[in-house]
Design brief:
By secondary structure, the protein is α/β, with parallel strands linked by helices. Helices cover 32% and strands 24% of the residues.
Amino acid sequence: MKNFKKSALELIKETSVNLPSDVRSKLSLGVEQENPNSNAGIAMSTISLNIDMAVDNTAPICQDTGMPTFIISVPPGADHLKIKTDIKEAIAKATKIGYLRPNAVDPITGKNSGNNLGDYFPVIHIEVWDNEFIEMKLLLKGGGCENKNIQYSLPCNIPGLGQADRNLEGIRKCILHSVYQAQGHGCSTGFIGVGIGGDRTSGYELAKMQLFRNIYDVNLDPKLAQLEDYILNKANKLDIGPMGFKGKTTLLSCKIGKAYRLPASFFVSVAYDCWAYRRLGININVKNGQITKWLYREANEIKRMAKGIGLPLTGNTISLKTPITKEQILKLKVGDLVNLNGEIHTGRDTFHHYIVKNDLPKHIKTHGGVLYHCGPVVLNDDNNGYKITAAGPTTSIREEPYQSDVIQKLGLRAVMGKGGMGDKTLAGLKQNSAVYLNAIGGAAQYYANCIKKVTGVDFLKEMGSPEAMWHLQVSGFLAIVTMDAHGNSLHKKVDQDSFKKLETMAKAVF
């Protein structure tokens, strides 16, 4: 199969930059449901524009390309080792040319391999089937939504819903709670796969396999089909909405599978996926390795997602140029749309852990600055510099243990990411006269377009590209104030309000 590696590379590229037909259709319905002038509407508008930009630029929809997961079915006699070797070589090449972000990190040394290859990375499942062609499916699921996966062991007590027993009613409570707990951290509007039964490992695998189903299929088990519809209906009444900004579209699909379990165990496993639901598949000629058919693509799919050429701006839009003053920050309030200009700096998990114990080099000036929770996709340009090709925000809550101290130490006026942060950071924002800016999760192309120049980078060798401190000159970088310097948090309010709605579903019958 001399063309197999080329076909694998094409699958990786298309999965990274182009969403499947069913996902496009569902997202389009979500856009229509939100008020375009609300925070949720602005988020959905940014998402739809970003989808078009990714296709136009042939670049990642979201900078977090996750851990690639391949599901492959092959005829008897196919060379499994050669298939795995070719896929790994395609993965390394896709990383080098910018379709994938280098995500493979050694858990002991903390070193990034730089090519998305390492122990058990990527994930490749191969099974034999009774067909004379190869079917290869790929799922790219980012770390933000992966962190919102959750597993329940029944019986258990679920906050807001009470006792969950080993029956369909208990399963219902688990799935509802799984949507509530994700909030905006997993880049809602979201999609979930659910695995009922199995053991701890196979339960999660079953849940993830549900994400390979078409959104519009109907479960063959009538009870599970009914439960899928029920969850979809009730989840959208939680009013969590896009990015956790409050809105009508919290969940766009729920797919449930079951597996026989041990008498002593009853697991409900949930795999959460974000709006950037990247999964495609191909059929491959077993003799020459060429693609014969694309899966998850329909001839009548929605080709262009954006309704206009830009974002709808509200009367609250406020322009800020770094360095930002205390007086400017104190004028901001939750809900304001900020147009950010000037130099900003990136900083993620490794950076925060480092900086609480160490000082920055003297040449880095952060007073009055903005720290962006972002691990961009970066390529070398023709002038021996760097070009950012994807730059959406990462989930901020991981930095909660450090953020307040980092704000004070670096003299920051704003931190920016997605999903909001907790009480410790909220207190730190008030104490240091700073704000939290919520960028639109997954909008990697939209924000990359706002980056006009890479002015420098620090800790690249020590931390790897995603975790390095990149210094970026930005223009027209839009984000929403969701935590202000006066102790107000949109995330806290949406969480409280959605929890109250969750409690009303405790005794619901479907």
